[in-house]
Each structure stands twice: as C-alpha cells, then as structure tokens.
C-alpha cells in the first residue's frame, strides 16, 4: 500500500494541532460540527481530559448526550486488531465495548477468516461530546470499525494517522457498491458483528444495506440491525445496548421488527435524502453550543473525578505505551475523505 507523505509539520501549540485534526474529519462519522469549541463548553472540557475518570464503569446519559466513568482503553495492538488515529485519543470505552471489540476481532479471524480489525474512534477518555467527527460516541458504547482488513504487519503510528479510507462505493455512480472492493467477507463481518445480542445497531451506508438485502442468503434475523445512514461507506459503526443494570444509561428505542429491506431502505434511493436545501429557505440557526450543564448532572462530577494513574493503568495491554504517537500531520484533503461519487456531502447524523 502507498502512504502519501505529507509535508513536515511542527506542533505550534494545542490549538493549532486541534485545528488541523478538526479540519481533517479523518476517522468517522462526517457531519458533526467542525468549529473550534469555545473555552468552557462541553466539547472543550471533555476534549481536554486526557485520562479516564476513576470509578466503576458507567455509561451516563444517551449516545449523543452523555459521558462515561471508569472507561478503559482498547490496547493499541492486539493479536487481531490495531487501533487507528491514535493522536485523537478516542480508543476509550465502556469495558463491555472493549470486550466486544476484542471478541469480534477474534471471532472474525477464526470464523470468517477476516485478518483482523482496524478500529477507529470509540470515545474520549471521559466520553462526552467531541469537537469533530461525531454526534454520538459519547458514552463509550459506540465504536467505528474500518471496512478495510487489518494488514499482516503492524502499522507505524504515522501510518495509523494517514492511512486513507477506502470507500466501498463505486465512483461516479449513485449509491452503488464497488465490486472491486466489496467481498463476501465484508458481508460476513457485518453479520457477525450484528450477531451479538448486546449489539443493537450497526450503521452502514444505504448502498451497503441494499447490497446485504439483495445478496445475503444466510440467516436474516439480524439483518434488521443494519441501519442505513449517511457516510459509513468505509467504516461501520457498532452501537451496543445499555449494559444490563446500567441505570444511568438511557436506551435508544428498539429497532422495529423485520430485516429493514423494505420501504425505509427504498427512501434512501429517492432524491429526498440528498436534495439540496431550497434556495430561498433561510438555513436553520446552528444549535447552541452544548455546555456541561446540558448533559446529565453526574457528567460534571465525571469531569472533576480523579484520573486513572496513567494510560497504561487503564489499558489492558502490555503494549499500551509502546507506540509513540507522532504529532498529527496535515495531509491533502483528498487523503482524508473518501471519494463518494455524486453522493452529496454527509448530512448531520440523525441517530
Ligand atoms: Zn461512528
């Protein structure tokens, strides 16, 4: 694989670095607000917590409005996974999420021959809203997994920052899977991920959902967990149910019965979801910036809680600190977003 090397970059302070990462939209759900957060906002405060809050693991609030206590990190490397975009420091999650990712990576290798997972964003050390890339991922129960198989060698920290996404969509066509990229193993990986009872939803591009509806010949009970959404053509997004007994975790409405291959999917192939706003309609006012007081009450305490002693202390793997993270390097815009043909820019998530 070829990694395009970007121009050398010198860190000129936290804000400059954050700005570059913010502009890049590199791993994940496009569409969330890209503007720098104001000092004191929930995004700024949760984004600056570099270590998790000590305490019993708790996912507090809703996927798109909450925080996390007692998060642990997915080790940078495991036998069947590699964590990506390390500089973002978003490989933290509820222990149930970390366990699920490790299990999925093992099962994927053993049961379907997928070589291993490249894992993108999970959550910030204390969860909470992120200044770029996602509306959800706030309570440690959402994770992005690349649709690119893990290479057989260990990627360097720089490669993990810069490895471009590979879209599964065909360039120049509307919502069409690229047969040169898509394989039956991709389909099996998605259905394996959907097979765990603790997984409630898997977000994928509508073209992927359609491909699955049209071609999956195995058991279809879990097909309904695959939910079509903007973006998600180079990665898929796993959302877990609130773990049993997690009183502070606010569940999402259960998905409706059925395989989701009918009307609701057909809508994505109409013009409506992709229509440009009418020229004379004034754009809606951007929502007010989220403050800590907008989150569940205990999220303020999560911010104030003492940190875990170190990343290694909150990370199950021996290699946790072995891979030094290079400063983020600005790359050409073409490296950062998959070319998705005529499909318009991702709209804000409505999950
Ligand atoms: Zn995601």
UniProtKB/TrEMBL annotation:
GO molecular function annotations of the record: metal ion binding; metallopeptidase activity; serine-type endopeptidase activity
Keyword Hydrolase assigned: yes
Keywords attached to this entry: Disulfide bond, Hydrolase, Metal-binding, Metalloprotease, Periplasm, Protease, Signal, Zinc
Record-linked InterPro entries: Peptidase_M74, Zn_M74/Hedgehog-like
Disulfide cross-links: 213-261, 242-249
One GO cellular component term: outer membrane-bounded periplasmic space
Record's keyword annotation contains Metal-binding: yes
Superkingdom assignment: Bacteria
Biological processes per GO annotation: proteolysis
Name of the protein this chain belongs to: Penicillin-insensitive murein endopeptidase
């Amino acid at each position: 694989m070829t990694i395009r090397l970007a121009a050398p970059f010198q860190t000129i302070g936290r804000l400059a670095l954050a700005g570059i990462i913010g502009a890049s939209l590199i791993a994940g759900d496009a569409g969330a607000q890209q503007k720098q957060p104001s000092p004191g906002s929930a995004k700024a405060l949760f984004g600056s917590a570099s270590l998790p809050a000590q305490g019993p693991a708790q996912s507090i609030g809703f996927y798109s409005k909450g925080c996390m206590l007692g998060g642990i990190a997915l080790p940078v490397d495991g036998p069947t996974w590699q964590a990506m975009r390390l500089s973002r420091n978003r490989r933290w999650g509820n222990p149930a999420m970390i366990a699920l990712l490790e299990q999925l990576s093992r099962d994927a290798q053993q049961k379907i021959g997928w070589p291993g997972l490249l894992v993108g964003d999970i959550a910030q050390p204390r969860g909470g809203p992120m200044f770029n890339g996602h509306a959800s991922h706030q309570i440690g129960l959402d994770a992005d997994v690349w649709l690119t198989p893990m290479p057989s060698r260990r990627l360097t920290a720089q490669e993990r920052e810069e490895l471009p996404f590979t879209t599964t969509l065909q360039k120049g066509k509307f919502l069409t899977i690229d047969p040169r990229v898509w394989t039956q193993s991709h389909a099996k990986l998605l259905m394996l991920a959907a097979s765990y009872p603790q997984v409630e939803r898997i977000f994928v591009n509508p073209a992927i959902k359609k491909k699955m509806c049209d071609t999956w010949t195995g058991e279809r009970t879990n097909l309904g967990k695959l939910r079509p959404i903007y973006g998600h053509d180079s990665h898929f997004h796993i959302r877990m149910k609130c773990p049993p007994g997690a009183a502070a975790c606010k569940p999402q409405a259960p998905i409706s019965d059925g395989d989701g291959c009918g009307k609701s999917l057909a809508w994505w192939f109409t013009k409506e979801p992709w229509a440009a706003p009418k020229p004379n309609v004034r754009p809606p006012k951007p929502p007010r910036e989220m403050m800590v007081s907008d989150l569940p009450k205990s999220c303020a305490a999560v911010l104030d809680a003492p940190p875990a002693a170190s990343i290694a202390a909150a990370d199950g793997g021996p290699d946790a600190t072995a891979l030094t993270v290079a400063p983020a390097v600005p790359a050409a815009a073409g490296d950062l977003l998959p070319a998705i043909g005529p499909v318009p820019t991702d709209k804000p998530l409505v999950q």
